[in-house]
Design a protein that fits this description.
The protein is built from 7 helices and 20 strands.
Length: 314
């Protein structure tokens, strides 16, 4: 299990994994998370308004899996989702957008917004979340029963409630690794539950990894243990779900923006409840179509332009 340091004088303090993340360089005016139709549409507006614009995305999301698209304006013949994504990215680059392939793990604030990715941090005055709807929620008995009562989806949001307690992070990749590191300075111990999957990252050798498939979450009024398919169990005070990759609502929660289930709450201007952060596309719910994502992106981009202009005038 991962021991948590009580203070810099503790022996265990130097056991924390070394933070090798490269720090942010140039401060952008707007960073857009997601390189699908919503993100690229927003970027086209912000870069043409003269804003320093960066798009960060891991892949093309669910759109990349679409074999033929026939219900989107402007194409006389069907186009594949992957081809549409590639065309959008090429358009953004031609306009002067910096497009980065990276996995985003979190967002924080220090006067500007800090986007924490796998190997580097990026800094911006505003953020547009256009990540699609990608939360991975395991189908495990007891999950819904203990949500908010021992089951959490955001380490930075809820770590405080588990001070001095034993918790687990469920996941197998960089997102799980990131969440575990967030918890280490607060909780008593952390273990990793991969739920039957092989780890896709190199967790530190001294971390306790449980690769058994989880059968159920158990307890009374609150979560007390995890039951595995092999009949064994593990006593825990909390489990943080971090399977797959961080979705839009996961990232929104980390910065304090309101969410409703997997959906980011926005107003008619695509503004979240945090000034300077906007959301567009599938992560805001509604009609999950390219046409809606493009509109949302245009609206979010326009709102971000107005926000940056207001900062410049102050």
């Amino acid at each position: 299990m991962i021991k948590s340091p009580k203070n810099p004088g503790d022996e265990s303090y130097n056991m924390l994994p070394e933070d090798k993340t490269e720090k942010a360089g140039e401060i952008m005016d707007v960073i857009i998370l997601g390189k699908g139709p919503a993100g690229i549409s927003a970027a086209a507006y912000t870069v043409r308004a003269g804003l320093k614009t960066m798009v960060i995305g891991r892949d093309g999301g669910s759109l990349a899996k679409a074999e033929k698209i026939e219900n989107y304006y402007g194409f006389s013949e069907p186009i594949s989702g992957q081809k549409l994504i590639e065309e959008g990215i090429e358009q953004a680059i031609r306009l002067g957008v910096e497009v980065v392939s990276d996995e985003v793990l979190g967002i924080s604030y220090n006067g500007n917004f800090i986007v924490q990715a796998k190997d580097k941090e990026y800094e911006s005055k505003s953020i547009i979340l256009a990540t699609g709807s990608s939360r991975v929620t395991p189908r495990i008995k007891g999950l819904e029963k203990y949500e908010g009562k021992g089951i959490s989806y955001c380490a930075v949001c809820d770590a405080f409630f588990y001070q001095g307690k034993d918790v687990a992070v469920m996941g197998e990749g960089n997102y799980a690794l990131h969440e575990a590191k967030e918890l280490m300075s607060v909780v008593r111990s952390v273990v990793i539950l991969t739920n039957g999957k092989k780890p896709t990252v190199d967790f530190p050798a001294d971390w306790k990894i449980y690769e058994q498939k989880v059968k159920a979450f158990d307890g009374n009024d609150r979560l007390q243990s995890v039951l595995f398919q092999d009949g064994s169990s593990l006593a825990l005070n909390g489990v943080f779900i971090a399977m797959g990759f961080a979705g839009g609502s996961d990232l929104a929660k980390k910065i304090g923006a309101e969410t409703f289930g997997p959906r980011i709450v926005v107003d008619s201007e695509m503004s979240t409840t945090v000034p300077g952060i906007y959301a567009a596309g599938d992560c805001t719910g509604g009609l999950l179509q390219i046409s809606k994502a493009v509109y949302d992106g245009a609206k979010a981009g326009t709102s971000a332009i107005q926000y940056i202009r207001s900062l410049e005038s102050q």
